Amino acid sequence: MAGDDVKKSDANASGGVKRKEVKKETGLGLTNCKDDNFGEWYSEVVVNGELIEYYDISGCYILRPWAMSIWETMQKFFDVEIKKMNIQNCYFPLFVSPGVLQKEKDHVEGFAPEVAWVTKTGDSDLEVPIAIRPTSETVMYPYYSKWIRGHRDLPLKLNQWCNVVRWEFSNPTPFIRSREFLWQEGHTAFATKEEADAEVLDILELYRQIYEEYLAVPVVKGKKSELEKFAGGLYTTSVEAFISNNGRGIQGATSHCLGQNFAKMFEINFENEKGQKGMVWQNSWAYSTRTIGVMVMVHGDDKGLVLPPKVATVQVIIIPVPYKDADTRGIFDACASAVDILSGAGIRAKADFRDNYSPGWKYSHWEMKGVPLRIEIGPKDLANSQVRVVRRDNSLKIDISRTNLVEHVKEMLNNIQHNLFDVAKQKRDACVKTIRTWDEFVEALSQKKLILAPWCDEEEVEKGVKARTKGEMGAAKSLCSPFDQPELPEGTKCFASGKPAKKWTYWGRSY
Amino acid sequence: MAGDDVKKSDANASGGVKRKEVKKETGLGLTNCKDDNFGEWYSEVVVNGELIEYYDISGCYILRPWAMSIWETMQKFFDVEIKKMNIQNCYFPLFVSPGVLQKEKDHVEGFAPEVAWVTKTGDSDLEVPIAIRPTSETVMYPYYSKWIRGHRDLPLKLNQWCNVVRWEFSNPTPFIRSREFLWQEGHTAFATKEEADAEVLDILELYRQIYEEYLAVPVVKGKKSELEKFAGGLYTTSVEAFISNNGRGIQGATSHCLGQNFAKMFEINFENEKGQKGMVWQNSWAYSTRTIGVMVMVHGDDKGLVLPPKVATVQVIIIPVPYKDADTRGIFDACASAVDILSGAGIRAKADFRDNYSPGWKYSHWEMKGVPLRIEIGPKDLANSQVRVVRRDNSLKIDISRTNLVEHVKEMLNNIQHNLFDVAKQKRDACVKTIRTWDEFVEALSQKKLILAPWCDEEEVEKGVKARTKGEMGAAKSLCSPFDQPELPEGTKCFASGKPAKKWTYWGRSY
């Protein structure tokens, strides 16, 4: 139920003209279209949706409560799950001494260009500069060496929730590529490779759940190429998402088997049951606030954020729609009562009673913030003992009786959660292009496809692909070889080298 | 029920001789006594109790899972409470640009000597060095100025859980004074001073609860002197604990009213209902991992840590005590079943089934780690369908029937929690010395007392007290003026200046 301004706002699909009308009218709205100016749209929507505030140091961003609560929801899920796996939380220092940082050669080469150095405290220069952790392998493993003596000290499974700093110079983007970000980093050590291998996949499955079941973002599980794996590790698995609007893959989270490489450098040895010396097998794995950025990119639209109900701080926003001659008190009471009823059933509901904004302004405001469901209560609703419910994901409106409110709302939130995933998956799947030759590859790349190609799995060939696709938009690279492999008939050739193909691999431009 | 070694370990009070015997026998134990070498005892107990590992950068420490889980318990409590107060979590960057940092003069003077500066990233020098936050007033308030426009934007109440860096040069001590530490910092802005004043005390009450109800550490609520208040603030309230072993006060947590000083510097203005311009009233408040150090200092003994049940990761450790000819299987099953029964009732219980350690070693090990209750199950216990329960706080042993296990254990844990607080309070109270003259003050200080003295409340007089008590042990200073003031008869004079006293104030040496 609503006035004229409301209908206009409701009817507002992604058409540019109508959108601008709303903006003018309400002072809200976005000036960029997702389809036309994706990058600008993203920068605008994270700010207008109140997830982010830009900060006066480039590449650093303020995470506002609307973003932080999403992070906390994912954190709660993941923390419970890893505790079930007997992984314990700890906290290691922010600072690393240069000697330790440089111990693993490949690793430091991977991170050195991005390391921030503290050289001064107060007015004094430090004798030796100190690095800020870009990740904590080298921070932690000297102590693993100390703590692990015998097989009974294994497995050692630690995790920490913390900030890390990587001073990247290319295109800082909120959530996606920032100079400081929040993440968890798990670091585990096992007696056998089998145990390490198994854990890599258990953790990757949790990352899939975060993306698919919480953020409603479809991902592909797979293995990274040698060129793209973690610096210093044995192999890297990841969940890969895809942004269909700009045709870029994006690494969602990674679960690495480090093998025995760090164990060798940091001398992490143990004595087994038979008194023989062995070296541990290690994993490290992480997901970061990048998750939130991927979610925004996949679901957001020209009206703003679209939050999946499972991570939305406010799942249902209730807006009174009073008229001059109507029973305003009755309408407000009905809104307050709806909040109580829904909250009592564990639904995160809130009413917007502000008297200095029109209902239409509030609709746009909460649409911008991505709240999954809006409930409007006006005079007619009050008279009929009903409420009007509007879905953020597809703008569908229905009137439902106040007697079945909880049941209906629960069902609708559940539908929205699944619909967001289904729609995103259809979009993603529609972008997948299976190719077999270099020409097909180049064409698919120009069409911004997520390219599935038979590959010989040679590092030099990937370097060649990168070199041959270099350009304004960035070079193409391998994203992952999916665990779920299509059949690869005998004699299939690599799209890039013509050598015998060993596996199917996803390729594309990426973040 | 236990063998010979066990009785020896159990009987082990704080006598040096017996203690050393145990150490030799088990490879555990502490080489320092709490009463004889308090500082060394503390450094040793936090490591042997597995809370802390020393790190290769001085003043930085590794928080091991045994410490982290205590932090998480307090975090959970506090986070729920502040969310009830509509305070929202957020995350601001680690880095501050120098211009912003230096905006509030008194504030920057207070922190500048301890600020760590990033001047280099990768191989490049930064054009302008960047500070690492020592606290976030100057990080946050430029954005408060942006976000707050009208009275409807107030109150603005944010909190963040994060790390901060203060590069102190004096005596780094684990938890108590470290160069990086974890804390929460709340930053709120109100339209009126009344609202700000009320919140200062609401938060202080939560800090009291953390100390007294979780950590079983008695604290005094009060107000800091002008000299000791937060740099740049209007007034500071705190909860103050006292370490009777070395006679030092320790600031437990602080809740500051910043007044309008930062609002002025950062131009945080708003328009009230009547369209008039106003400046906000601000608070900031914080508690840190220092809490854990205070708990260790107050409760620990010569056998190791003593953890209050409410914060202990493991509340009950169950140890099988098999004999050669006994029903080992039966004993192990009884232990496993006790874990199940207690865990099912929400008690954090764990059995130590390791076969390479004797029961006696395990007793010492879990005593060192401070587990509140130990349950021993041997052949006699099995036969009598009972268990032996041993309290960590007072070494009391009782045999209880397995049929009432949950009820008994709950009651004992509750008793331990209260007993720890009561004993600590008696100890603290026994150290309080009320004095009226300078001579009495000097004598009480030499006796390591917590000194309550009538004071004129003048800054110059406090500076004088500091100057006159300077020495090896550090100068005395005011700790707080307790909210709970004894009567101050007309004509009472200041202990230090002889001027008319305005209030009772606690004085002492402090951390």
UniProtKB/TrEMBL annotation, chains A, B:
Instruction: Tell me which GO cellular component terms the UniProt record holds.
Output: aminoacyl-tRNA synthetase multienzyme complex; cytoplasm
| UniProt name for this protein | proline--tRNA ligase
Gene Ontology molecular function terms on file: ATP binding; proline-tRNA ligase activity
GO terms, biological process:
prolyl-tRNA aminoacylation
State the HAMAP family in the record.
Pro_tRNA_synth_type3
Q: Which UniProt keywords apply?
A: Aminoacyl-tRNA synthetase, ATP-binding, Ligase, Nucleotide-binding, Protein biosynthesis
Which EC class does it fall in? ligase
NCBIfam families assigned to the protein according to its UniProt record, in alphabetical order = proS_fam_I
Reactions this protein catalyses: tRNA(Pro) + L-proline + ATP = L-prolyl-tRNA(Pro) + AMP + diphosphate
User: What EC number(s) is this enzyme filed under?
Assistant: 6.1.1.15
Q: Which organism is it from?
A: Juglans regia
Which interval of the chain is the signal sequence? Answer: none
Q: Which PROSITE patterns match?
A: AA_TRNA_LIGASE_II (PS50862)
Checking CDD domains in the record gives: ProRS_anticodon_zinc (cd00862), ProRS_core_arch_euk (cd00778)
Task: Enumerate the InterPro entries for this protein.
Answer: aa-tRNA-synt_IIb (IPR002314), aa-tRNA-synth_II (IPR006195), aa-tRNA-synth_II/BPL/LPL (IPR045864), Anticodon-bd (IPR004154), Anticodon-bd_dom_sf (IPR036621), Pro-tRNA-ligase_IIa (IPR002316), Pro-tRNA-ligase_IIa_arc-type (IPR004499), Pro-tRNA_ligase_II_C (IPR016061)
- Segments forming domain Aminoacyl-transfer RNA synthetases class-II family profile: 70-308
